[in-house]
Amino acid sequence: MQRGQESPDVVKVRTLPVQVAAHLTRRIVNGEISDGRGPSELDIAREFGVSRVVARETLKVLASLDIVDVAQGRRVVVRPPAEWDYLSPLLIEWLPAEVVGELLQELDQMRMLLEPELAAMAAALVTDETLERLRDEIGRMAALEGDPNAYLEVDHEFHMEICRAANNRILDRIMYSARWLGTASRRITNEDSDALCKATADHTEIYEALVARDPDRARAAMRKHLANNSALLAKKGRRTKRR
């Protein structure tokens, strides 16, 4: 699954302003609104047959995602795509699969920059209580290798435990904010038949390095794990392009 974070059987109910915002975002992505000027409240109300209140809320949704700026006098300006809030799960739902694929590659780059160092920091600071939780999570991973959706939740918590152990609130918020993209990435890499078994082995190596309180070993184990994920993601991307 290339978009969204929930399992395929989850039914999403969106408010009318969010539905209209999704439609407008896709038009912007497709180049249908390309002169930098976005639709006004009146334009939205007329085109979609909604009230001015709904139109106003639609613009608030778009502004919250940094897609548009609503200037004084109600002039609506479309912001450059590079400035959009790509950490928002809502925006990820609206983007084409190829753009989401690019974002997942960029997420891999971000994780490779941050997480090995977080693991090294955690190795120097980790408490016995955190090690106990990490050990329990590895046990749960081993038991859930036949259930990718449940495994994914434990996988995410394992990485966040390490992040919290590093005791840096800014890095913690960066990692937490990227969780939606991380979930999308894991859903793709977890599709391989033996991916979860290998992931459990990788997580065990990271855990053992933390138990040893060895920063260099923890850094290397995390880097190895992320490299394995990157290889799986790249393989999935090649398969998708051939279809």
Automatic annotation (TrEMBL):
InterPro entries: GntR_C, TF_FadR/GntR_C, Tscrpt_reg_HTH_GntR, WH-like_DNA-bd_sf, WH_DNA-bd_sf
Xref: Gene3D superfamilies: GntR ligand-binding domain-like, Winged helix-like DNA-binding domain superfamily/Winged helix DNA-binding domain
UniProt KW Glycosyltransferase keyword: no
Domain HTH gntR-type: start-end pairs: 14-81
Stretches that traverse the bilayer: none
Highest taxon of source: Bacteria
Keywords, sorted A to Z: DNA-binding, Transcription, Transcription regulation
Tagged with keyword Kinase: no
Pfam families: FCD (PF07729), GntR (PF00392)
The protein's name: FadR/GntR family transcriptional regulator
Organism: Lentzea rhizosphaerae
Phylogenetic classification of the source organism: Bacteria, Bacillati, Actinomycetota, Actinomycetes, Pseudonocardiales
